[in-house]
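re: that chain from earlier
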Amino acid sequence: MSPTKEAVLTQNSPAPLPQFSQAIKYNGMVYCSGSIGINPATKELVKGGVQPETRAAIKNLSAVLEAAGSSLNNIVKVNVFLTTMDDFAPMNQVYDEFFGSINPKPRITSHITPVNQSINHSRFFLEFSYITALVGNSLMSLNTGARLMRVQPTLVHGIHHRSSSASAIALRLSPSLSQISTNSRVASLRFLYRNNASQTQFRPASTSSASRPKLTNTPNGNRTPDRSSEKPPSSPEPLSDPLNPPASTRPPPLDLPVRDPATNIFFHLIELGKAYTTFYKTGLKAVFINRRLLRDLRDTFPPNLPSPAALTRGSSLKTTLSPTLDKSANPTRASLLLRDRVRHDISRLPVFALIVLICGEFTPFVVLLFPQLTPYTCRIPAQVAVIRRSIESRRAASFRALSYVDNNSSSSESSALLKVADGHICRSLGLGSTLWDKMGFDVLFAKSRAEEVVSRIVQDDIMLRNGGGVSALIDDEVVLACEERGIDTLGKDIASLRDRLEAWVTKSKPSQPGDVEMVLKEAADRVRGLLLGLDGPI
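^ sequence. v structure.
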């Protein structure tokens, strides 16, 4: 009996184009079509960056494999293709969510160089191949060839770039692509990958950037990479998102096991310890990954320079403020936040390592007593809640004390407000020890600290306005941006936080353009007024 072809179709994965199918089962093999990060319900590309798109793409592929009688557990080899190695760390975190508990498998991470170097196709491409699966009672070889692609075309200018929306995937390579639908865009990406196949560069999995080989002509006229004179790149590619720093700068997800009443408490505690161990290992690994990203990043300050906030009082902030000035030396918001968080985490590594060494499995309890001694990437949710609750309580107490200072046109009372303003800004943002509050004094160097944080917020507001607004931020970064501005976040939904952050950015905008120094002074005064609550609650 001759083998027959059987199409695989499931509603749990995006519907294919009429001329395609999600998968074909033929002669003991299953061939999967491309799978991208589209929500099957809304038929829209998921938002939030590489991690949500990776997660959605793998879930779509999993649904197709289950419909074909297989699963992700049967994958034995994975090929990952990236157009920027900056996406490796966040992609790898999501990869571990699905494959962390599965037996290790060979994996190669490769870098794809676009044909048109003036356009940066910020996307990722994963290929799952050579999967052995049990379907019914027969052993079959599942060769998926599944493609998981992240698409976010960006135009590169110097070392900076502007992100285009995911809906505008015309890629400016062909005018005829401007009217195609979401599914037809997927088909066009397959064509783009085939065109780039001759320039694919293979390298071990790494967060460092890939080199670009020279192309030589072969006798048959085809151009092939010449690897005889490859050299390391002089500088890596920029971050794929100018506003949101890499996901590796934030704590990884902590999945704690739920105890079944029939499960022995001893075995449950073992599983609980494993979950925390995995969390801390991932967080510590992220610290060094971020350090490597910062070291290789070409649009950020060297690690030994002063903090970005100090530089905002000079030409850097002026450059950010004016879109007409040269931005070749001005870093993006993502790179500045990456640098700040790396400095924070590296400075806390020795103490945190000592805590882990001494306390061992009791570390999750100890960090609740000393929450500020932990790197950002190793903070458990309960610890984050303790820090936020403490800062918000301190902020409320500072505002109550500030309410006794009557702010009107009287020069003496205005002078009284100026005297307490710097201390209030430091207390409301959680700067300095709470011991100073109990003694009735401002924190040390309150004036310089307040000036520094105001300058940093002014620069961040400008970057948000110039980079696409609050809507371009992912949810986690919205929460962190609100915290940096003294906006309470505990118990607030993300929609209300976005509205409040949008209101802040709008109110802090200078009234009209003019002299740079005057505009910067007005922006700083507006930020100080918002921090003091002079413009009413946000």
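The chain has three domains: 5-212, 242-377, 380-538.
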